[in-house]
Amino acid sequence: MHDKSAGNGFARKAPDRVRTMKFPTRGLYAITQTENKSDDTIINEVAAAIKGGAVVVQYRDKNPVDAPFLAGELVKICHQYNVPFLINDDIELAALVGADGVHLGKEDDAIAQARKRLGKDAIIGVSCYDFVEQALNAQTQGATYAAFGRFFPSNSKPLAAPAHIETLHQAKLALTIPIVAIGGILPENGGQLLAAGADLLAVIGGLFDYQPQQSAKAYQTLFND
Q1: Rounded to two decimals, what is the model's pTM?
Q2: Are the CB atoms for 125 and 91 separated by under 8 Å?
Q3: What percent of the chain has pLDDT over 70?
Q4: Which of 51, 87, 111, 172 lies 20 to 30 Å from 127 when distance is taken between CA atoms?
């Protein structure tokens, strides 16, 4: 059990920002799996994924109970291992807990707003789905990385529109920022995305459905080959 008395709303004092970690140029990108899981389980699973080789973590929770508490604990774990920690959608939560940045979708706040709130060194990722032109626009606006997907059927995002592997080829030629692939990625199919131009593989279910540390190691072999 934990004491959430400090986590009600946004009354908690934001931590003093010492530095923002750099976004990695290659590796496994872990996105939290929170549904029907306790805070302690999520925290332990993220720690295990990092030990297995995850190089960046994003806190994604569509039905949070106490997001400030959980995000605050996760940022501690990530920074203990020198892994950057991002928040999905919520710029204010990122500022509150001292996250290294945010990941923005098409309906989230603009890149400029995130940059103004979080600082010039913050990591700002943008979902670009299957559109290289959208990624180029995000890059021009100062995005740190562009994410494409979903590439394979996904239990986490079953209704997401499919993306094409050819998009990764085009993005690799057009972009100078790192390229993240997402959507149904497993150790068995991730290699073709890396070969097509992806720099990082973002994973939820394939990582957290079963033994995150061992799962992360399986993905890590793709980057070692």
Answers
A1: 0.91
A2: no
A3: 90
A4: 51
